[in-house]
Each structure stands twice: as C-alpha cells, then as structure tokens.
Write the structure tokens for this entry.
Amino acid sequence: MRLSNETIDRIHQQIDILEVVGDFVSLKKKGLNYWACCPFHNEKSPSFAVNPAKGIFKCFGCGKSGDAITFVQELEGLSYPEAMKYFANKYGIEIPEEAPRSDEEVKQQNERDSLYIVLNYAKNYFADLLFTNEDGKAIGLSYFKERGFSEATIKKFELGYSLDEWDGLLKTATQNGYKTEMLEKAGLILSRENANDSADRKHYDRFRGRVVFPIHNLSGKAIAFGARILKNDKNQPKYINSPETEVYSKSKILYGIFQAKNSIRNEDNCFLVEGYTDVISLHQAGVENVVASSGTSLTEEQIRLIKRYTENITVLYDGDPAGIKASLRGIDMILEEGMNVNVVLFPDNDDPDSYVRKIGGEKFKNFIRENKKDFISFKTELFLAETGNDPIKKAGIIKDIVTSIAKIPDGIKRALFFQQCSSLLKIDEQVLISEYNKVEIKRRQDKNKKNEQPEVVNYTAAEEYPVITEEPESDVDKLVSLLQDHELSILKLIILLGGEAVEGRKVVEYLLEETQDVESNNPLYLKIRNSVAEELNRGNEITKAFFLESQDEDIKKLAINFMVDKHQISAGWEKFGIIVPQDYELVEQSTPKAVLKYKRLFAKFLIREKRQGLINAANVEEEMQMMQEILSLQQFEKQIDKMLGIVIG
Ligand code: ZN
C-alpha cells in the first residue's frame, strides 16, 4: 500500500487520542488525565493514563507509552502502513486502491500479515458464495432468512457459506495465488497424513457445506471462522471452528466484540450470551452491547477484554440446567476480576435469540431490566427452590455464596454483599463473616503452600484507583537491602556535598529535615545522622573534616571511602537508579530526588508490612482499617511519583 504524504497529514489531523484509545478501553477522567485498566498488561485497577493535551498515553504499571498511532500498532499488532489504513478507514479518508500484489510482495509480508490476508480472502469468498452460488442461496441464505436475519445484518457480520465440496476454497484460493501452506496455517484447510493419490488430494477444505460465521478481532479483521452444518448428518458435529493459529486464540476473543464495543461502552454494560445467533439476533433488534463466548467456557482473558469497556456484565443464558451451570461458573470468574455481574435466565425453551425474535428489542430490554438479578439473589433463589428450608442444605448454600463473595477483591463491595446476603437468607451477618474468615484463611494457606507468583491484588476504595502490588515473601529482604543502599546514597550526599545549597538550605540540613519521619534501623546511618544533628545543634558547620576526623572508626572509614573514589558507582546503585552525584552542579536536583526515592521505598516497605497484617487480620473491621492505611500509603507513593516526574522532567 502506498500512502501519499497528503493522506498521512490528513490522518494525523483527524486523530484524537481520547477517541482512538476509547475504542479499545473505557476511559475515566481524573484530573488532567484519563484513566483505564491497561490493555497491554493484566491489572485490576487503572494505571494506564491518557493525556489528551499532549496526545500521548502512558502505563505506570508496565511502562508502555506512545501516541495514538503506536497505541493502535502495539495493541493490534499492526505495521505502520496498516495502522494508517486503520485510521483512514476510521475517519473515512479515501486511500488509493491497493495495487495487486505480486508473488514477490506477498512473500515479503511477514507471516501474520499473510494470515490476515488469507483469512480476509476466505471471508470474502464465503460471503460471495452466500449471495451468488446456487447452493449458497438455496441453503445458506435461506437458513439465515429463516432465522430472521436481514441482508444488512448478514453483511454487518459478514456471514457466508462454504460449498459442500472437498476443495472449494482450496482450488479457488490456490488459483488466485494463495499458498497451500498459508491456507493451512490459517486453519482453512487440513492435510491428510498418508495421501497416496494426487498432490491435490493431500489437502482439503475444513469448512464444507456449512454456513460460516467469521470471528473478528477488535479492529474488525477476520481471524477465524465458526461454521454450522445444515443437513442432517450424525457423523458431523453441528458446529466446527477454526483451530488455534498465530492470529487466533479462542480463549482471548469474544464473538461480536468488534461490532459491540462502542455500544458496550455507551451502555456501560455488556450482555454475555452463548451463541453466534444470539449475538446477531440481538444486534438486529437494536440490542448491540452483546458478545458470546461461543463454544468455549468463559475465560479470564475474555472477561478482561470486556473490562476494557465496562465494569458491568449481564449474563444472559438459557434457563436449562446446562445454561444455569455455565452461568454459575462464569459468575465467580467475573467477581474475581472485580467486576459487577447480573444474571438473567430465559423462560423454558427460550434462549436470547428466540426470545428477542418473539418479543422485539424494546420489550427485550425491559425484560432484562425487570428480571436481572445480582448474583446473591440469583444463587439464593436458585438454591432455595431446590432445597426448601432444609437446615443442612441451607448451610451448604451459605458456604457456596460466601465462597463467591470471597472472590470479590473490593472489601467495601464485599461488606455490602454480606449485608444483603444476611437479609435474604435471614442469617446473622456475623455468621457469614466467620464463615468468610474460614474460607479466606484456607485460601491464603493454599496460596502460601503453592508459593505462587507475585499476584497483583487490589483493594479499591470507591473513588480511588490504587494499585497494590504484592511482593513475594523474599522481597522483604530485597526491600531492606534497597533501603540500606538508599541510606548510603544519602550519607554520601551528606559527606561529600553537605555544605552545598539546595532550596535555600544546606544540603545536610535539607536531608536531615526531609527524611526525619523515615524510620531506619541501619546503625551506621543512625549514628551519622545523630552525630551530625548534634553538631548542627551546637551551632557548628558540617565540613568534610568533621567526618574525616571523627573519633568513630566506622564514620571515618566510610568518609574516606567516599572521598577516595567519589566517582565510583556501585553496580547495585546504578541498577536501582540511585543517584550518585557526579557533578556538583547537579546537587539541586539530586538531593531532592534522593529524598523522594528514599521515602517512596520506605512507603513500599510499610505497605509490605501492612499487607502482611491484612493477611493476619482477625476480622473484617481490622481488615478495613488495614486497607485504609494501605490506601493512604499508596496515595503517598503516587504523589511522590508525580513529584519525581517533575524533578526528573
Ligand atoms: Zn500496562
């Protein structure tokens, strides 16, 4: 693709980073920036910021940053020209027709690009057959029409038909210059292990005699297909899907997300259904905030995909036992991601598809509004209907519900659900909480046993977005030794540059005053601080001689070491970004920076301590108290980060 400079300029003028990023994640304004959970790494509270004035984004969690174009490139795995094409599409900027690809050009594309091209070709091929081929029209199109899909809907979802032949796609595609190898890598054709007949018979089409549902990625590219057979054939599964390929991982994508994402954000809610046809029927009826996990059970990655656009999921499943079971499994996973979940079950023999066709979009929306239940009510009613008032069974329900509540990462939400559960089941809240404590203690014990990878845990207060990263146990030692490194760097500043000026004070005074509330148990550090403070109290100046002529051997030795090689940089210091002043002119910057870094590290250390306390908390009240303390430390840390940004920047 060749883009003129003029086209590129026009695209640049149109780009609004808020809108661009907003197509992928749900942004909330806070201060000058807009915040969201980072789409590049897994997190439960937002540390991904967009600054519209500067036109840039930055994630404070994983460090990714850039402008609107790099955002789309990185997120969607696009090359620069592809990203430009994406924007041109988005803003309706016409770009000159693509020149036909020569074999050479195709070869040069990397494999991912080639897969997209092959998949796009197949998508168009299937879609064409639906409208032009006799079988396509008679079998495929009439099936969709029977289901009530309009032509506009069929085109919107790019539905298609695959011929009931062994090599329908294979033949046409290879004739058009597509490589068998690529078709196979894209999951479109299969190969026979021992093919004795001609070379052509070695490969054959995966999708034969089926209606085809392309599965799109977030930017609307076909990355896979689902296909439903229409004739009665007991030897064939009703639905088959593309295999996992380099561009398709079924656990990471949701059917309909591309068509639904804007509506999900606008409605601040995502309807989750089971099948392709549920999604399409609802869309046609004007209910567009809907996606399907289609064929797989819901995964964490899929939930996080939804979380980019909203915190709210409404599960719409069939009311049959299988549907209920699937929804129960989904609920706990959604809760675990810190999201809000409601459930709607459909009347007997109806699924969202059939129901919306029966009553229409508006009534459907009303039905959802009136019948949605939060998970506690849903579970409680479900179990009570099954068990009546049998006290033993009731105990089982309580345990089950408490286990679900325990999955909610937010302590305040959790407390509210305990209240609600208490009134619904007519059980003293204290009973629930002690049950919860049992579940929690067991969970934490299990976790410690497994010695899991560090986990990002978040405890969210209503208005704040703190991120608490739990350090693994051994990191306490690392924190302590880091603290000592920082203390050394402060001592170095005191000894080498104590007499210089910073912010209208002597460096030594500045350092003593600004770090006085940081508790240290490093004896050498404390000894030097105390003797310096005494000397200052006596009204004396602190000079290098004060240290070099000290009666204390440790102090003297340290000072000599610093003096002898003041440019020596410890490998450890450099690695952790501890400043070692190389130049006296930098003292005005390096002194405050050293203090801020030291304080931030100390805050981290305290958070680590409180988190330990949180695990050992005896009850919910104590837990809440701890959480509050952690929250304010977190805010403190963030503040320092901001100040460090200013100092550095
Ligand atoms: Zn990130």
